[in-house]
TrEMBL record:
InterPro entries: ClpP/crotonase-like_dom_sf, Enoyl-CoA_hydra/iso. GO terms for biological process: fatty acid beta-oxidation. Pfam families: ECH_1 (PF00378). This is Enoyl-CoA hydratase.
């Protein structure tokens, strides 16, 4: 489907594998290709599994764009936030097989999914924006506020604390950690189980449960338009 990601579907499970350089940076093109893959998953009526390369889910946004100008950075951030919003309201379950590091936008992808399986290993997961001199965008704050336990929200968003995979379970970025060589198989088996759900009921319940949050996220994305990091 793309030079930046691969889309495969089998047994009602669509797997989106990111392979955009060493850190799977989220660029405009990767987000466009990601949305095209989600369009195909909707047509296939498949449960979605998102995964990366060995050792990395994603290291965040494309730094070339982020350093270009404030306007360029905010345009990319808005596009990425809109992708997260789509994942949170996707009509079928979304599972992430986190193959390693998940930093900044990589961690936000975890917070945008329904179920997150992580790989054991010396990996870092979290939101490092404050540590690298960025004020967290409104949509990022609201996404973290909704998905992280209160005890970890300040530590993650305001203090940029990073977690190993087991710590990321407690912090709310992951649901389960398995040996590295089992992470994709575990996520795929779970997706196959989830494919047995009544998808009409799943979609309706997801939208009802997240209605207020999605409205808040929509407002936050609009606040970020023309804003600054």
């Amino acid at each position: 489907m793309s030079d930046l990601l691969t889309y495969t579907v089998q047994n009602k499970v669509a797997t989106i594998t990111l392979h955009n350089g060493k850190v799977n940076a989220f660029s405009h093109q990767l987000i466009d290709d990601f949305n095209a893959a989600l369009d195909q998953a909707e047509q296939d009526q498949a449960v979605v599994v998102i995964t990366g390369q060995p050792g990395i889910l994603s290291g965040g946004y494309d730094l070339t764009v982020m350093k270009e100008s404030m306007e360029a950075a905010m345009a990319l951030v808005k596009k990425g936030s809109t992708l997260s919003r789509r994942l949170l309201s996707f009509p079928t379950p979304v599972v992430v097989a986190c193959t390693g590091h998940a930093v900044a936008k990589g961690a936000f992808i975890l917070l945008s999914a329904d179920v997150r399986i992580g790989a054991e290993g010396p990996y870092k997961i979290g939101l490092n924006e404050v540590a690298i001199g960025m004020v967290m965008h409104h949509a990022g704050v609201e996404l973290a506020r909704a998905r992280l336990p209160d005890a970890y929200f300040n530590r993650s968003v305001i203090c940029a604390e990073m977690f190993d995979p087991k710590g990321a379970v407690a912090a709310g970025f992951l649901d389960k950690v398995v040996p590295e060589d089992q992470v994709l198989a575990t996520a795929t088996a779970l997706a196959q189980q989830l494919s047995q759900l009544d998808m009409r009921a799943h979609k309706g319940t997801k939208l009802k449960a997240r209605e207020a949050f999605l409205a808040t996220l929509d407002r936050a994305i609009e606040l970020d338009v023309g804003g600054s990091l």
